[in-house]
Write a structure and sequence with these properties.
Elements (H helix, E strand, L loop, with lengths): L4 H8 L4 H5 L2 H14 L2 H11 L15 H12 L4 H14 L7 H14 L3 H13 L7 H15 L3 H18 L8 H13 L3 H9 L13 H17 L3 H18 L4 H17 L6 E2 L3 E2 H7 L8 H8 L3 H15 L4 H10 L7
Antiparallel strand pairs: 1-2
Helix pairs in contact: 1-3, 3-4, 3-5, 5-6, 6-7, 7-8, 7-9, 8-9, 9-10, 9-11, 10-11, 11-12, 11-13, 13-14, 13-15, 14-15, 14-16, 16-18, 17-18, 18-19
Amino acid sequence: MSGNLTTVARWLHHFDDTELRAFPFVLIAAAWTAGFQGDWAAAWRYSRASQALAADGTPPDGTASFRSARALMLAGLGLDGITDVRVQAEIAYHLEGPDSSWRPLAAALLGAANLAAGRNDEARSVLSQAATAISGPVGVATYAMGQLAILEGREQRWAETERLARQAIDEIERLGLDNLVSSGAAYVMYAAAAAHRGDLAVARRRLQSLNPILPSLSTAMQFDALQIHLLVAETLAVIGEHSSAAVHADAARQHLELVGDAGLHAARLTALSAKLAAGTGTTPGSGEVPGLSARERDILTLLPTTLSLREVGDQLYVSRDTVKTHVTRIYRRLGVSSRSAAVTRATELGLLDRR
């Protein structure tokens, strides 16, 4: 959590799963590492293995106990939905004393879970603790500020949303945390505040700041990925970029299908999808012949240009890897194997204008 993820991952390659189970605290570190690296299978495997273990003695990471360390990890990964995040975060919050350097993380995770559950007063209380803590893992305070900005935005207090997001971004950039998933909420809420006061240029620029983070939004940390994609989609809808909003709404929907339990985020996504569908005359998630989704058609319209896949992603505020995944699906559904062939075939089918 101090930024040396690659080093830790290299160390962990020396251990197989059986050996990791013999060292429960190393198993916890392995689960966190897999989550940060987007390795869903390993994160799931390690988190499940930890639930069958116990450990005595003084924890080497400074947590109150193995139970608390495990609860923090389970809440942080959020693989079992928002209700479980709240349960696990509460366990860690009560096990870690007021002077613990890990309590701010427990408070931030508990606050995010309460926010998703609509418990705004409870969320504000613990998020404020995390945002002002003088200790704790790197990035926790800025994460809590981002979540507080979401809360203020939800209550239409956009000036306070912008202040909190700006404060978080200043700290993120000072510490060099702009590529961490935990920084995403601050950037998108600054963009949302700018959009609501009519400064579309600033909104677009701040959404571009999310580009280093987007590749890290994976199934290994479902809740964070769902939240950020939803917030981006809502902000893009405000500034009138409905095609790009639909791409992120679709990504959020895919995470929702996997996580299942997402609290108020599920209702917000349903409302947004209906709004976007009403604007385009389509049904949310539906495609047209030859089976292309609305998101894939958005990307298809940019294939005849000279834009690279990365530049296409920049146009739609998604990562190059996301574009590449959609392009692969487009090729398969059109029965082609190259970009030029896809353009030719799509034109023949009337999916692109003849030029």
